[in-house]
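The protein record quoted in full:

***
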Amino acid sequence: MPSSTAPEVSVSTVAATATSTGHHMLKIEGYKHLKDIHRNGSCFESCRFEAAGHTWKICCYPNGNRRDAAGCISLFLARDDDEDKEGESAGVVHAEFRFALVYPRSRLLPWPPYAKSTTCTYPSPNSSWGFPGFITVKGLENTGFLKDDCFTVRCDITVVEKSAVKDELVKAADMERLGMLCKCKDDLCKRHHRA
């Protein structure tokens, strides 16, 4: 038989929140020479930069980072925090990041910017994530992103943290608002029923 009074229930809330964001631009000049110097599996790196509360660098493989990515440009975002740093920076970091090719200022092109994004977990200060096949070499060379043997990549980073909070005892009206009350009258139902 359904209860005639609303049950007392405590509620926990788990939320993922963006705690900080940052951006970095990497301009690659002399692309053809860099492509000749860095064969498949070989990369060049940006300088270290601070963004979203951490230190990072961008790794670019102009001929792909591995054999099955040959013919592509591979882009990775490497976490480069100091290993001896204590506190939050030393632990696991959950991040969302986006790489986007940037049009040269003098070009007004009809197609949208080329971009890829992902959400990932950096388990340690020297870990990296990215895109082995960010864009094909032909794709880059046949678009308006490459001008005067240069192209630019923008990196947007958001660090995400999760938190768990125990709310105070909630009433039936709060439970209904949270979608936690059931309207059925079946006493076999295991959910909380509206009074």
Remarks:
- The CA atoms of residues 172 and 178 lie 10 Å apart.
